Amino acid sequence: MPVITSSLSNDQQNKLLSLLGNVRLHLLYKASIHGYTAAAFHSRCDTQGPTVIVAYNSAGFVFGAYTSKDYTQSNEEVIDKEAFLYSISARRYKPLKVSGITGKCAFTDVDSGPDYGALVFLYEDEPAVDSNPGTSFNFKDTDMHGDDLQLTEFEVYRVEDLGDLLTKPWRNIQWTNTKKQQLMEAILNYEPSVKMVHQARVLLVGPVGAGKSSFFNSINSAFRGNMTSQAIAGTAESSVTTEFRTYTIKAKKGGGAVPLILCDTMGLEDNLDAGLDIKDLVSIYNGHIKDRYQFSLSGPLLSDAPGYKKNVTLSDKIHCVVYVVETCKASILSQKMRDKFVAIRKKANQLGIPQILLMTKVDDACPLVGEDLKNVYRSVYIQKMAHELRESLGIPLNCVLPVKNYSQELEVEQNTDILLLTAVEQMLNYADNFLENQVVEDQGGVCGDPEINSSMISALMNSDSE
């Protein structure tokens, strides 16, 4: 008997799972093995609980239907508010999800192929689909299946819930006001291990809309004790931030500066000619780009340009890089975006800069965390996303930190502050690791010939091996 394996690629499976939540898929039926007939479908898929149909065509579309109800051949219309149709295609970054029309049934439980009205699978016992958008579900044929109704494969999976909360948290956090005050005190009393450096310099890097600017505003709010919006934040297809900014945080209104500078940049974009240029990033790493430099779409900043800072000290360099990724998009990062992260990590590793990854919007990603932030390290879904980011971006798990930025709140909240401040404490620890590894000649400057250092940087930026 042949071994039955899924036809889903890893990317397709991740995108499908992003629609289904914290589940695993168990393959029940594969038409190329069991036959393209309604009888074969029902013999393996009836009374299996929640299932998802996965249909493939030669146009490159993977599309189908999810239902939380059983197939039983009852000849009745089945109402299922959780049911949806979907489509995955290389043409789209995100999968298409189509919910049912209000008041309409999800599917008709007949003895023929799965009948969702708008899509009828195994139509007339053939490797084909009948498409009738507007019947129970509404979509455009070109978006759902590219007008290709002939199937190259047809599969059905049982959708198995993995549970919502872990018995024990995968990290122990003290959710108390005492802990919050301890974190604040430790951060305010931080002194860099190199005396010539007075503030740790941390760079935020991430895709458009991941929450870099919002993270700064949230940290600033935590220390001020009220909502702030110093950095421009928002959602757009291209980066809201178009210049390099360095932000100093104040402890309370009119208070002293926190020993931390957060640096914000343009967002990363899929296209090679859009978003932050990696050569500009290396200049930032080495302290050569001035505050408020306006990034150019025509190319990276050159060493003879006005915005280029030639004479730098250890204080100007980046001491820790923080990658910012939206949690619910962790499993559907495009390959182009992953490649950019790999290239950026390689540059940072060559310069010996430690790195941390922030998983933002955890409250949006998991409803249980949205209800109670203290569930963040008990959420199976959040843990799963942390492991996926660790694997896909090559970040050690102890460097992956879930956080919640302030977005709709009008007042600061203790548990949100604890997660934010825990992340800042780790940034300072890692910045100290970087500083301790630097060769310092004296308390007035960095050891080494500046011209030699510039040559090394130039070679690094233009290396063909990158």
Describe what this molecule looks like in 3D:
Residues 235-239 and 440-466 have low confidence and may be disordered. The strands form five sheets. Strands 1-10-2-3-5-6 form a six-stranded antiparallel sheet, with helices on both faces. A six-stranded mixed sheet has the order 12-13-11-14-15-16, sandwiched between helices. By secondary structure, it is of the alpha+beta class. The longest helix has 23 residues, at 414-436. It starts with 9 loop residues before the first helix and ends in a 5-residue tail after the last helix. The chain is built from 13 helices and 18 strands. A hairpin with a 4-residue loop joins strand 2 (51-57) and strand 3 (62-67).
Short key terms for the protein model shown above:
466 residues; 13 helices; alpha+beta; elongated; 18 strands
Secondary-structure blueprint:
Layout: H1 10-20, E1 23-30, H2 31-34, H3 38-45, E2 51-57, E3 62-67, E4 77-78, E5 84-88, E6 96-99, E7 107-108, E8 119-121, E9 129-131, H4 141-144, E10 151-161, H5 177-188, E11 200-205, H6 212-224, E12 245-250, E13 257-264, H7 278-285, E14 320-326, H8 335-350, E15 355-360, H9 362-365, H10 367-371, H11 380-393, E16 400-402, H12 414-436, E17 440-442, E18 445-446, H13 450-461
Parallel strand pairs: 11-13, 11-14, 14-15, 15-16
Antiparallel strand pairs: 1-10, 2-3, 2-10, 3-5, 4-7, 5-6, 8-9, 12-13, 17-18
Helix pairs in contact: 5-12, 6-12, 7-8
